[in-house]
Design brief:
- It is a single chain.
- About 30% of the residues lie in helices and about 10% in strands.
Amino acid sequence: MSLLDAIREYANLTGTKKGCDHGQCGACTVLCDGERMLSCLTLAVMKDGSEITTIEGIGTSGDMHPSQKAFIEYDAFQYGYCTPGQICSVIGMLGEGNRNGARNL
């Protein structure tokens, strides 16, 4: 079973979306131990013991993550379906850059 299907069907977290199911669109992007991961291409059993963060774990309506605020402020939504994966991807990308010695812009 894919990590995406496990997240949606067993954890009942439906914010992570199934798009192309081939790893091309990014709608299924989640954070696995802080790094971006395409959940449609990842077997759930391979991530046993990992910390998986979906859009539901990013922020709340009263305490949004800065990336969520930026998406709203700069009207970064396309049609909305891919937005959860895009936000997870942004957060992961910024974290990966910090781990590799890059600075936030």
